[in-house]
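>> Question from a student workshop board

For tomorrow's exercise we were told to take the sequence and the ligand below, predict the bound structure, and bring the output to class. My setup keeps failing. Could a helper post the expected result so I can at least see what it should look like? The ligand is flavin-adenine dinucleotide.
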Amino acid sequence: MVILQQTQWYKSKTPWYEPPASFFQQTGREPKTAIVIGAGLAGASAAYQLAQLGLQVQVLEQAHSMAQGASGNLAGALHPLVTADWNLRSQWYAQGLQASLAFVQPRLATGQISGELSGLMHLAVDEKNRQRMQQAVQRVAHLSGLAHWCDAAQASQKLGGKTAQSGLFFPNAGWLNPPSIVKYCLAHSGVSVKYACPVLAAEYDKRNQAWLISTPNRGWQADVLVVATGAISGLNEVFSLPIRPVKGQVTSLKPEHQAWVLKCAVAHQGYSAPAPKGYAVTGATFEAPDLSPESSEQADQQNRAMVQASLPDWLCSTTKGALGRVSFRPTTPDHLPIIGAQPDFDWMMRQYFSASSSHTPYRFPPVVYQPGLYVSNGHGARGLMSVFLAAELISAQLVGKPPPLSAKLYAASHPARFAVRHWQRG
Ligand SMILES: Cc1cc2nc3c(=O)[nH]c(=O)nc-3n(C[C@H](O)[C@H](O)[C@H](O)COP(=O)(O)OP(=O)(O)OC[C@H]3O[C@@H](n4cnc5c(N)ncnc54)[C@H](O)[C@@H]3O)c2cc1C
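>> Workshop helper replied:
Here is what the output should look like for this input. Compare the format with yours to find the bug.
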């Protein structure tokens, strides 16, 4: 595993990505309370980290229980991103994966969360795919330390049933049950959760240095606000988050739908994974721009076809009673999440965007952030590999510790990057 941990403060070469001052430096006092909007993986992991710092955290969730959005699938895959070059996304997700493993491994071992990191088989679904994956292993030095190539016979043995495809086996990857992670994080003694509580508006009270939150029956107040609203929320626009919801349907299979027991998670045209109590999941469709929440028989058939192309005899001839679950991936235009302290976009408009972007960066002042405001969103189709790093970043920024990722990766997931790029394009 590569060590990518950031241990020192850095000064950004671009003022618009300069890391924020701590909450104490911004306000002259220590933060005591936080409100987190959203009880999915992003909100729950952030709430946990803030509670670990000693804050009293109130999570506000519009649904009637936790993990009702994208974080509600029975199983999700956790594995490195394989790209033919060592690009920014693969680097970001390598770091994200490290943060996820550090959080989940000890809690899996004690049974506090559910899942299994005993390996993931990434099958090469066709010849072109096989060549690309093998090139990636040759070109990207650290991949060869994380995975090894299996021929079809070895792959079949790892999976527990027949495949005609070869693939890359990642021994430390696997699957996780996202709702169990959300449940674990929200059970922290410093966290309270209020369900059926949609946040309607949020505004900063400068005089009292507090966030004022409106919900249908009452108002709330806190030093810190974390926006973790996922794919579909009116608040995404309010907080200038360019989130694109991408509909996906996962099919949940009962034990009687599976002709043999899948021994580990597998990526193919989609992914399949064991799940708690002998269940398994297979999926998932990509159905943008459809925003309807209804599941469909057609999407389940598509999921069956994807897995059958790689594991031809895994599913029984009938999978009657298998449940299709629809949710929406919160994706972003550059397929990286949006995490950390939220800049003051009005200030940026006055100080940066109304001037020519061709001036040298050194002529511009460092960016100003909104006190105590943080974001964890845009986790797309890989939230299990990004939400823990996001939560770590937020807690580091709050107390003024160095960001847990390099300057380049920090800028790559900075909430201001889309506005800055738009300005620079002219
Ligand atoms: C079909 C599918 C398959 C996937 N497979 C994988 C996988 O294999 N591996 C992987 O790593 N990732 C996978 N993902 C991605 C992962 O599930 C997401 O990235 C992750 O769950 C996002 O978490 P979140 O907390 O941002 O969003 P969500 O879980 O959607 O949570 C957001 C919450 O905010 C609440 N909310 C929104 N607005 C308000 C408001 N105004 N007031 C109060 N509450 C509000 C919502 O009700 C919701 O509960 C998959 C996603 C989908 C859809």
